[in-house]
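Lab notebook: predicted structure, single chain.

Context: the supervisor wants predicted structures on file for every construct in the current expression panel, including those that have not yet been purified. This is the next one on the list. No modifications to the sequence; it matches the entry in the shared construct table.
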Amino acid sequence: MVIDGIDRAWLLQASRKDPVRHAYALWDLDHEPIRARFVSYRTAQTTLAYLLVWSGDSKATIVHWVGPGDEAAALASALPPRPVVAVVPEEVGARVRSALAPVDAYSVLRLVAELPRTPVSASPSSARAVGALDAERLRAWAGTIDSPLVNGYRTFDPAVNVAWGAFEGDRIVGAATAGVRLPDIWVLNGIYVEPRARGRGHGAALTAAAMAAARAAGARPTLYVREDNDPARRMYERLGFRTLDRLAWIDAGADRPP
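Prediction complete. Output recorded below exactly as produced.
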């Protein structure tokens, strides 16, 4: 049966066995109670799969489907209306594309870094954590960039959020953040370098700085990358990331490529 909500005790137990796949759900349950809701597929005894439905994006609803494809028919009927972005297991991709058509679909990889590697050499201007002194500069920079990757930086609050900036002199040219910070898993996202500053090592420096902070907190860093983005994949592999699994990113009217 399909029900609203999620069994917190079950989620805690499931996340201990598989913290990466449940990281967004566990974080949003406590940190985004107003903007996130859950739809679960359950038997009488346990949860089999669930949708995490996040309404924090002003232009589209973001859905993460967690669980096996056997429950595709039931959960597909609970998908929100367009515009929506759904990140789903490959085996339910066809079902979700049909339910939300017309769509644009992409293959994305979920990467995780296990063991520390030798740090990459610093870029011409090293990435550094964004604190109170740089916060307004980061917000202003994000306001000049037309990319959904940087939208969250426009309201960046160093008392609540964490971010790293890549600098050339006093000018921010890129940023990265960790949208999820759990004791054992950090999800890195919003990794963006403005086009005119690319090719100078800023992306690697930002990612390495975020990875170092995660490991200092005792957590493994994880992130998502589009499978056909070969330069980014190679960079992440050099930094020690490996592919955990492949997912389908399905954009139904949101104009939000990964």
